[in-house]
Amino acid sequence: MKTSLPHRVAIIELFVAGVLLAAAFGYVLDGTVGAAIVCVAVAAVLVGHGISQRDAASTWLVGLGVFSSLSRLDVGATQAALGDLRVPIMVVGVAVALLVGIVTERGRPPDPARSS
Length: 116
Prior knowledge:
With 116 residues, the chain is mainly α.
């Protein structure tokens, strides 16, 4: 099954927006608030464009990007900020994002832009 280019771009945009939000969290932990604001602003633009190309049900990709990228941040800083919940937040966050994605994508009607 082929997907259209705007569909692929929207999927990538939503996931990258989640990665940027995780990076913003890392910048806040490092004390670089300006970089965090820029990351959040770019993520907001990507989410807005991704939703306009797809729909709001695909925002589970943002959560997947955030929680899967938390493990790439400084372990000491995230451990200090999140405590003993660091690993459970990452694992449960990814699992919940994937579960929401499976449920919302299964219930989605076929995309007319897709061709078989």
